[in-house]
Amino acid sequence: xxxxxxxxxxxxxxxxxxxxxxxxxxxxxxxxxxxxxxxxxxxxxxxxxxxxxxxxxxxxxxxxxxxxxxxxxxxxxxxxxxxxxxxxxxxxxxxxxxxxxxxxxxxxxxxxxxxxxxxxxxxxxxxxxxxxxxxxxxxxxxxxxxxxxxxxxxxxxxxxxxxxxxxxxxxxxxxxxxxxxxxxxxxxxxxxxxxxxxxxxxxxxxxxxxxxxxxxxxxxxxxxxxxxxxxxxxxxxxxxxxxxxxxxxxxxxxxxxxxxxxxxxxxxxxxxxxxxxxxxxxxxxxxxxxxxxxxxxxxxxxxxxxxxxxxxxxxxxxxxxxxxxxxxxxx
Amino acid sequence: xxxxxxxxxxxxxxxxxxxxxxxxxxxxxxxxxxxxxxxxxxxxxxxxxxxxxxxxxxxxxxxxxxxxxxxxxxxxxxxxxxxxxxxxxxxxxxxxxxxxxxxxxxxxxxxxxxxxxxxxxxxxxxxxxxxxxxxxxxxxxxxxxxxxxxxxxxxxxxxxxxxxxxxxxxxxxxxxxxxxxxxxxxxxxxxxxxxxxxxxxxxxxxxxxxxxxxxxxxxxxxxxxxxxxxxxxxxxxxxxxxxxxxxxxxxxxxxxxxxxxxxxxxxxxxxxxxxxxxxxxxxxxxxxxxxxxxxxxxxxxxxxxxxxxxxxx
Lengths: 331, 313
What we know:
The complex is a heterodimer. Chain A is mainly α. Chain A has helices spanning 39-53, 59-71, 76-89, 93-106, 111-124, 129-142, 147-160, 166-176, 181-193, 199-217, 222-231, 236-241, 243-255, 259-270, 277-286, 290-294, 298-309, 314-322. In chain A, 66% of the residues lie in helices and 0% in strands. Chain B has a single domain, classed as Alpha/alpha barrel (Glycosyltransferase), CATH 1.50.10.20. Chains A and B meet through helix 3, helix 5, helix 7, helix 9 and helix 11 of A and helix 2, helix 3, helix 4 and helix 10 of B.
């Protein structure tokens, strides 16, 4: 940047800008939503409009866009013009990364910054791979659920590569916060899309083991329950046929009632699971109302438990109860 | 919890932009047209659209149009699909679509479709399912859907579907309620809702309701009034809205009102803004709150406007 934030010299007093006539914002004759501008910001934008309208793609214009972006990183027209200047001047893009990193520190959820970053990385190609993986790690270390950073990282992996350590990275983030749904999503992304791991069929067994372990430690965590189902995507038969899955439900429920375990059990029953005596007695143990014990169907008992345990979604569970497939009513 | 402070919210919207030396208004200069859409739609939902000078709005909106046919967020800025939808929605709201060169606008939007069916936001090529929704919504309002390859557009959205039934910004991206609204909306407007597993997605969406009654946008995140729109409209479109506790949600939204000066915030006791005021009121509209006009969950416009423009009723 040209100047310190504290001691900003107005453009009107900078000799190198004396040839430029600033252009004020045209808000129309009677602005619908009149806007009060800060003086510094207004002046910067007035000079920006002047060089933009004159299409002046010079180093000083580039510096001016740096100042304008530092004041408001959301203005996409400034970014747009900056890219045109970078293209025209053939600027060293390494410097551009530094600039972005500086701006991103305080604006990590700004669409324009991420889009610009991607544009620069795309131009650089695989030379940028490690830098981009490192950069997104840094942002994610501050906010592990930053949607932009994750999108950028997924793009880097797919466009430039760098899959080698990604599963370890997911593991590391999950160790830091096992409730981080973004990290679970990334894990699924890696096991299904990494060219190095052989895809879902090759990964299923070890992933199921890992996920079950995690669930047993924190049964109230929504993400691994969904992840577990994802591992059997589109294959209800395999889900029902895997004894580890029904065994997981039983283990969790033998401690106390849990909506995710009951819901998974309900789906297993709907898809044809034949419950054993142990599983039945675990559910019995959770049921204490008399009306439920009169009904012989395990699936109905599970629905009733869910209605009680999760009253906010009682309509959902009531719906599940009335739409139970007929074969569940005999077990 | 009290009632919806309708008059105060109307007054808040009418005066919000007149505040001087407000840094917020300064940094949103470039997305002023979004702000205008949020404010005007809220006014209409509250039955007070006639309090503004409509001709003035229309002439300002038209000054934001670029020669490409697309609209910018303000006069003199660059066009983007985000602002183009807001412009078209505002004109639809005011029943002034006839001032548009419909083919010019729709050609701009259609020109942003990529080979794989996705849409870019502008000439710089950022791809996101938000833009798929925006393009489809825009062209539906303009009745020019035939200008794009709808089949490919739908295919791309479907490729962004996740194991939990939700959708992300690009294939493999995490499910997020805002992106889900866009994808469900895009599929609804193209008659393609059969691609959705309604029960699976419906369950994910109703799991977004937390103890306070508010909705979050992803697991383990804080509730926010904006999800009263993103989650609720999606649930309405897939006909599963009865799965959440509507009364608790309404109470959460009402608790986010500034009962003195009007406006609605993201969470109770935070600062209000026009964005959350719109989403709060729109959410209450979907909850059929008395006195608030009905909003269409896919077009994000009042139902009577959609009937007039789309169905010529």
